[in-house]
Every structure is written in C-alpha cells, then in structure tokens.
C-alpha cells in the first residue's frame, strides 16, 4: 500500500522536471546536505530500492506500535520532501523567467541607443567629409611631379590626419556650446489650475500683503521724509542731497544707497537686529489659521477676501484708465499741459549740456520734494490751485466716470427735449420740479413732498434719487402687518422717509418720516445672527420708540448707511453750531 502511495504522489513530478542537482542556478545554501551530484537513476531502480527498504520494515511488524509509528514518520517525510521539491522547482522557474525578461528589456534599450549613436556617427562623418571636400576644392590644385608621387600621397595623408585630429579636437572642445545654439520648437507648458479653496484664497491674500509690505513701508518713509515727520532726519537728508546735487553726484548717491540697503539686508538675514525707519512700524496681529471652519465662517471668509480683491482691482483699474485717458486726449486741457512739458524737456535736452541739465533736474527735484510738497501738504487750497501734477491726476476721469457722464448728458437731453413743450409751463400732476437744475422728483404714488407731507424744498439726495428697497421692522408693534412693511427708503437734507409699498394712493398713514435731529443712535444691524456676513440692515433709535427701528433686507446697505450717517452728522454739526447749549 505504501508503495502505491509513493508511485501516485511522485509519478508526474520526477519525470517532468530536472533533477535539483543538475540545476545551474541553485545556491550553495539551498539543500546542500541533501543534494549530491549523482548519475540519474531510472524509475525502476528507485522502486526496487524502496521495496528493499520496505521489506525489512515488513519483517519488523511484530510489534503493533512500531509499525504504525514508522508508517506515520515515513508519510510525513515524504510529504515534506514533496513540498520542498515543488517549492524549489517553482523558484527555479521564476528565476529563469525573470532573467529572460531582464535580458529582453536591456537588449531593446541597448539596441535603441546603439541606433542613435550610429546615426550620430554617420552624420558627423558626413559633415567632416563635406568640410574636407570643400577645403580641398578651394585650395589651388597642384599637379605633382611623377617621381615624387609616393611622397606627395604620404604628405596628403598626413595632412588629412592632422585636419581630422584638429576637427576632432575642436568638436570635443566646443561641440557642447554649439549644441546649445540649435533651434528647437518651443515647448508649451499648460499650468494646472487649482480648485477654489477658501483656505488657499486667504493664504494667497496674506502672501500678497506680505510681499507688498516693503513697497508700502518705503513709500511711507518717503512721505514722512517729505512732510518733515522727523525734523532732524529731514534736515540732514535735505542738506546731504543738495550738496550731492550741487556737485553732480546724484546717480552715485542712489547707487550707494542701494548697496547700503543690500548690505543691511544681508546683516539682517544673518541674524542682526537692525531697524531703521523714519515712521515706526506697526506690527499687525497675525491670526492663527483655523483648521476646521464652519460653512458660515467659510462664506464670510470668502466675502471678506472678495471685497478686498474687488477694492484692490478697482484701484489698479482706476490708475491704468487714468494713464490711458491722459495719453488719449480724453481731457484735452490736461493732456495739453503734458504735451507742452514734453516739448520743453526735448528742446532743453537738445540745447543744454547734459551736465547742466542734470544739475537743474537734481536741484529742482530736491526743492520740490523737501519744500514745495511740504507747503502743498500743509496748505490744501494752495495745492488745489498751483500743484499742476496733482491737478492733472485728480481731474483725470476713469472709464466708469466717463460712462456716467455720458448717461447724465443723455438724460439731460431727453429732459430738455421734453421740456420744450407744455412741460416748461407747468409740471405734470404728481411731479415736483427743481428750479435750479430742472429735475423732477417723484415717487410711485405722486410728488415726493405730497406723499410725505413735507415742504417742497425737501428732495431726495443725489445718492438716493430712486431710493433703496428695504423692509421696515417696527418692533414696537405686535400685529404682523404693522411689524414688517416692504417699501423704499429715502434721505433728504433733514428727514429720513420710508414709503410703504402697501399704502394706498394718496394715503400716507403707513409711510414713515423720521427727522434726522430726532435720531439718537444709528448703526449697522444684523437681523439674523445665524446667516453669514455682517448683515443687511440699519438700526435707528428715536425718543418716540421703545426699541430701535430696523430697515432690513437692504442690498446696498453700506452705501445707504454712509449717506444717512454723513447727512446726520452734518445736521447735528449745524445744529450745535447754531445752538451750542443743546
């Protein structure tokens, strides 16, 4: 029975695979004790040996315990041996496959490199042959004498070898630099756009602010130096600059200041604490970045960053549009001054020597920076009348201002064309006419002063001619109809007027008129604290109300608040000036 088991188990394995001792890739440590190089025995011989081993064991079957123990030991050894043979053969097979794959991949890459080198060698040989051929053609042909033919051929061969070595040396020496001047098509790299992230947006704004800080500090120091913030520092700077300008050393002075600044930056980078500034720097508190933000905090963060970006882009656009309009003769009287100044500078540069011209420019720049600008900053009225660069820059319009001007001009033309008829004699019903500007102020219910029962002189300010859409929240009332009202808010010179959209024609019961002098407190208000942002409401307190009234859901809340608060301040200032006891 044991013989049959051995034949079934190892029938296919020993015939299909090579003997482990014949494997060339077996290591010294693998089965060194068991594997010995022997001539391969046949299957019949092995079976005979096994039968011979089994017979003595069959003789020893007298003891029942010894037979079962020997049988178990033999089956365990055969199983371990079979598993070991299978594992070694699989390892040998996998090593062969891996070696074949490595050889194939290396061969392909080596073939490609060899082809490239071969093509390059052929090109170089062709270039060298062409160069030699052109030189031989250019050189005068000499007919060698008959007896000296072998010597001439030897000399030519020697010349060719010398030329080849010289060209090879030149190529080895300067070939790398020549390769750099080869024209190649420009590679277009497409930058990957990052997805929108509130954290990354805030970090970019902070980086922009930190990067722009040296420029702002430099401009602030120049402004402090010009306005004599530190008298001693400005006086020393003025004396040194005028002495340098008198001797014609302005350019070397600026170069020396640049070198000095770089030297100070080097010392600061090495760890030195050097702080030189006319204006003391104010360190802004750095807020630690929050890792986990709520939805409302993210929304508020995006709104704040968007507002800062909007203001920054608006200022940059205003500067660029003013420069463009200056050179495009949008305001001819302003561009004419620049035109005349450029002609004077051109004629002066042609007639005057450069040394004298530089002296004049340097002295004028020092007097303008240290004296004239200080006088103009101290006296704004003089600046508005005599400071030509300031007048030109402030009066230059932007494209937005030009658009607004064209719209107002078109509206005036329409009004003038309509007023040539019967409108010039009498205004239509429900419309009040401004005698100064010929403008008509009205609401949807009728004339403005009639709707709110105000004098005819009370008209909406220019900021709110059409009013601000909002809802009035009167927290003193209990009923829902009186608690919230939708309508339009106006501000005049002395009153704050709210026209309810639910009031009937000709009725002013639901409208609200608040005298600006009666207001005790005005501030921005957030109706719902759950919503993100700073709110869209304005809170106004008066002595007649227990709780402040709120004008909420206002789209242009900041604009309305500025207009109302400015007019309220003017009225309060005028009232205190007339009656200081109050």
From TrEMBL:
InterPro entries (UniProt xref): GRAM, GRAMDC4, GRAMDC4_PH-GRAM, PH-like_dom_sf
Extent of Low complexity compositional bias: 139-153
Location of the region described as Disordered in the Swiss-Prot/TrEMBL record: 22-70, 132-157
Chain segments annotated as transmembrane: 222-243, 249-268
Keywords: Membrane, Transmembrane, Transmembrane helix
Source species, domain of life: Eukaryota
Protein name as annotated: GRAM domain-containing protein
Organism per entry: Astatotilapia calliptera
């Amino acid at each position: 029975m044991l013989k049959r088991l051995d034949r079934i188990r190892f029938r296919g394995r020993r015939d299909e695979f090579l003997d482990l001792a014949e494997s060339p890739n077996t290591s010294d440590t693998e089965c060194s004790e068991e594997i010995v190089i022997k001539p391969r025995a046949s299957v019949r011989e092995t079976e005979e040996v096994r039968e011979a081993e089994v017979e003595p064991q069959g003789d020893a079957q007298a003891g029942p315990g010894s037979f079962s123990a020997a049988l178990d030991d033999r089956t365990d050894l055969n199983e371990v041996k079979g598993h070991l043979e299978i594992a070694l053969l699989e390892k040998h097979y996998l090593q062969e496959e891996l070696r074949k794959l490595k050889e194939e991949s290396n061969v392909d890459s080596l073939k490609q490199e060899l082809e490239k080198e071969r093509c390059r060698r052929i090109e170089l040989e062709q270039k060298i042959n062409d160069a030699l051929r052109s030189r031989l053609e250019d050189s005068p042909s000499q007919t060698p004498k008959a007896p000296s033919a072998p010597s001439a051929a030897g000399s030519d061969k020697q010349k060719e070898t010398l030329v080849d070595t010289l060209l090879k040396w030149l190529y080895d020496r300067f070939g790398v630099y020549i390769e750099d001047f080869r024209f190649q098509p420009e590679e277009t790299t497409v930058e990957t756009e990052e997805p929108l992230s509130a954290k990354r947006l805030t970090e970019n704004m902070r980086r922009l602010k930190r990067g722009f800080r040296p420029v702002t500090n430099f401009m602030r120091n120049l402004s402090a130096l010009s306005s004599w913030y530190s008298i001693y520092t400005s006086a020393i700077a003025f004396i040194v600059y005028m002495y340098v300008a008198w001797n014609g050393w302005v350019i070397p002075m600026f170069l020396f200041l640049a070198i000095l600044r770089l030297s100070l930056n080097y010392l600061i980078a090495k760890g030195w604490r050097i702080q030189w500034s006319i204006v003391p720097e104010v360190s802004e508190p750095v807020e630690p970045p929050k890792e986990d933000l709520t939805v409302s905090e993210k929304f508020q963060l995006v709104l704040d960053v968007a507002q800062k970006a909007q203001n920054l882009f608006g200022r940059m656009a205003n500067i660029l549009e003013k420069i463009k309009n200056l050179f495009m003769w949008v305001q001819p009287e302003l561009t004419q001054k620049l035109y005349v100044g450029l002609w004077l500078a051109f004629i002066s540069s042609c007639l005057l020597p450069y040394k004298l011209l530089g002296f004049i420019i340097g002295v004028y720049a020092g007097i303008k920076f240290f004296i004239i600008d200080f006088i103009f900053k101290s006296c704004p009225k003089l600046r508005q009348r005599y400071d030509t660069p300031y007048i030109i820059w402030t009066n230059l319009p932007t494209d937005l201002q030009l658009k607004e001007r064209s719209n107002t001009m078109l509206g005036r033309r329409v009004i003038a064309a309509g007023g040539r008829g019967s409108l010039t004699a009498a205004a239509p019903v429900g419309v009040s006419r401004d005698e100064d500007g010929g403008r008509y102020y009205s609401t949807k219910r009728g004339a403005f002063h009639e709707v709110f029962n105000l004098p005819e002189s009370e008209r909406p300010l220019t900021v709110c001619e059409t009013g601000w859409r909002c809802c009035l929240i009167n927290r003193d009332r209990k009923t829902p109809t009186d608690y919230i009202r939708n309508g339009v808010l106006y501000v005049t010179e002395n009153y704050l007027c709210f026209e309810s959209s639910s009031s009937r024609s000709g009725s002013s019961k639901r409208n609200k008129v608040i005298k600006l002098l009666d207001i005790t407190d005005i501030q921005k208000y957030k109706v719902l604290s759950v919503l993100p942002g700073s709110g869209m409401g304005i809170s106004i307190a008066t002595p007649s109300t227990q709780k402040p009234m709120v004008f909420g859901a206002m789209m242009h809340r900041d604009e309305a608040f500025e207009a109302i608060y400015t007019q309220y301040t003017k009225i309060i200032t005028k009232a205190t000036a007339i009656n200081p006891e109050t």
